[in-house]
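Human: I would love a firmer grasp of how sequence relates to backbone shape in proteins. Take your time, and here it is.
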Amino acid sequence: MTVSVWVARLAMLSATASCGRDRPGDRYADPAPSDAPAAVADSLALRTRSGAEVWFTAARAARDSGGRPCIERVMEIRGAGKPIPIPLLYTGEPPHIVDDSTVEAYLWLNCHRGNRYRVNLRTGQPVRAR
């Protein structure tokens, strides 16, 4: 075998051995999000006359088309018993009360208000309002 064949085999072996390993400085590694929100404390968004509470919980950082940042939050219902998460409804503003069993909130995406959803306070299920 020639030297160039050995060098090619050695390079192939070296590349194969490192496959699947995360290496510091790897140019293909996902960078850490620089605008990730710091730990955001849960905060009360509203309380109904019946005693149900809607709380802002987790958060995600977002940017609008102009690059301006905002924080979009998810919510959960608290009251008697186990907290009920409201799935897939990130918002940038407090919800408002419709009646004793329903609140409305706007879905936010990239810092912009989108569709309005009604949320059942007993189940946490959001349904798009018409």
